[in-house]
Amino acid sequence: MPQRSGRIPGKSRPVKSVGRAKLSDVAARAGVSAVTVSRALRKPEMVSDDVRRRIDAAVRELGYVPNYLASALASSRTHIIGVVVPSLTNGVFVEYLKALHDAFLPKGFQVLVLNSRYSQDEEERAIATLIGHHAEAMILAGIDQTDRARKLLEGSGVPVVQTMELAEKPIDINIGMSQRGAGYAATRFLLDLGHRKVAHIAARVDFRARRRMEGYQKAMADAGLDSDGMVIANLMQSSVQRGAELFTEMLAKAPNLEALFCCNDDLALGALFECQRRGIRVPEDLSIIGFNDLDYCASAYPALSSVAIPRYEMARRAAEIVLEIIRGSGSRPKQTRIDLGFEIVARDSTARRTRGSARGPRTTRALAK
Amino acid sequence: MPQRSGRIPGKSRPVKSVGRAKLSDVAARAGVSAVTVSRALRKPEMVSDDVRRRIDAAVRELGYVPNYLASALASSRTHIIGVVVPSLTNGVFVEYLKALHDAFLPKGFQVLVLNSRYSQDEEERAIATLIGHHAEAMILAGIDQTDRARKLLEGSGVPVVQTMELAEKPIDINIGMSQRGAGYAATRFLLDLGHRKVAHIAARVDFRARRRMEGYQKAMADAGLDSDGMVIANLMQSSVQRGAELFTEMLAKAPNLEALFCCNDDLALGALFECQRRGIRVPEDLSIIGFNDLDYCASAYPALSSVAIPRYEMARRAAEIVLEIIRGSGSRPKQTRIDLGFEIVARDSTARRTRGSARGPRTTRALAK
DNA sequence: TTATAGGATGAAAGCGCTGTCAATGCCGGC
DNA sequence: GCCGGCATTGACAGCGCTTTCATCCTATAA
């Protein structure tokens, strides 16, 4: 005979959440059964007004908060969207996450964000964690998952969206842009302004940054230019400070620099500040272009040129598609690989090369320090 | 007789995670019972080598991922730390969250971050959500929770840490600093440099920003100065761009400005750029100090003075205390209210007022636009 | 009046795991 | 050759909720 549920006095297990009210407590207080309380909370229109009022009162009096774990286990609905990004501090992902929150929260979903810290292994672990939490969909920044991660994702049976970049063989859905193409275009833009000595600096080089750099190298090669000695790629964390440092380093290698393509805006801003510090005029002596087009680019002096990537739109579309799949349970979207492109935003920090004016004074000053 | 578990053909419930392997599947494949698998996964040293090997193999072959929900429900251990911050984009909280992640993840806890978007109601909802998820501790940015939120927190029975500010009556544990005092000190710093016309600009004014402003006003009043017409407080989102705008607005109200205290560094950077644009020399014509001392302050040209707040340390200490409580189950720390202070970081954007040189040309130019 | 929807409520089972305790097998020691 | 003790393993109940299906009651039609 199964024993009466409840705690056996003197032999109770270590109680965690002491005295926390549960469904049956509310039910007892309202004088109804537990099922009715459950219903009243989820589909209030299914119970009578009188009962609903009594239950509401009981809930308030007891400070009842439903146990989400039990609910999720019983219904196999977690309302969790799993997200993995490589960084929580990078401005790009900050806005990307904001877009995801904005899209999912109003629809009753929680967004569970895990940080892979630019490591494939940590990403794999994060993915396993999210699968363990039974996330109803998975949104990943990047396309470079490990084999095991791919297997796990495929086995999970939930929609997976890879973003930020275009994949050759997407796991499921892919919304992105060509990082390589964007790197090529940014470099091409500088070349088209008449610059020949175009350098590239990068920090925290991950897969995406690497492909941007490849774009830079291709554009240089296509223009018949040598990019050897014009690249500094650093694995340390990117920051404004780092931008100043790498630019300084570059100046030592290539004092007659004409244009600088920075892997991201932080580096570009740091380089700009360093120019001001050294009296290098931007854009007269040096053209600078960043990447990502963060908020501050437009406000800087001179306003920074950059490459705008559709980070908000990528997140929005990912959310849209995921919600559609979850709703329509199973109806896959017709298009599963979407290229959202990018845009070169030309501002005051880049200008056409003017013969003569630039060369002399700048390099002198640049070397002075 | 309870029916045999398993799906009744033709009448099965809507299956969510089709065919996802569970503990019993692994057990069957390894030829052991489910409990043994559970043990092998959690305390490998408790099972024999042979069994462990077979189980590991089965896990791999089936791509088994434990159902975290079921595990948490059964053990009443979620390993989740609940965190509520008012913004996911503000640089301060970005670093604060990073510190929390760094502290908790290595200890086997997940950090569940919810965004209150500077709204008390949303914060209350976030807190309820976290309680529903049975977070094992709660770390909140700020001290201004609603009454119901406080009740929920007290009823939850888990440690609660309020951070970023010092509370009169903490809910539980409080690690912070005096925002008001910091505002006072920053203003005092400018006054001590000989400035009289000291203005304050603020955006996205929340409780903390308001108290910083009160500090500013008190410092002005204590110095016998009038702060009327020297303050612009804006409720819109803060950004570099906004800094330029508010500074421009302030210039119209107070053309003979000598020093500017910005509510945060983004505004200060925007104001700095605007000065460059207008040919206002910093610090000769105008001293500028920001707040938070974000990374880029030190790199800007001129380097921005700011007020450094111990955001990393607040998070670290909060995590430390929480971990101690969870471990030692019940042993409260002796000190439950910790003041971590702040620091005025004087850099090149602030300087002693020099008679004459400043006044004339600057105001002219300032008014020019 | 009696049959008959249809709305409101409840009883039972089970989601996938873990805690507890009992059962089994094997060792050396007497 | 029997027993205590240790190392392994398994059976069972239950975490707090939802799903399913049965039951009850009232209102309406016949």
Automatic annotation (TrEMBL), chains A, B:
PANTHER family: HTH-TYPE TRANSCRIPTIONAL REGULATOR GNTR (PTHR30146:SF2), LACI-RELATED TRANSCRIPTIONAL REPRESSOR (PTHR30146). This is LacI family DNA-binding transcriptional regulator. The keyword Transferase does not apply. Pfam families: LacI, Peripla_BP_3. Gene3D superfamilies: 3.40.50.2300, lambda repressor-like DNA-binding domains. InterPro entries: HTH_LacI (IPR000843), LacI/GalR-like_sensor (IPR046335), Lambda_DNA-bd_dom_sf (IPR010982), Peripla_BP_I (IPR028082). Residues 21-75 form the HTH lacI-type domain. Keywords: DNA-binding, Transcription, Transcription regulation. It comes from the Bacteria. One of its GO terms (molecular function) is DNA binding.
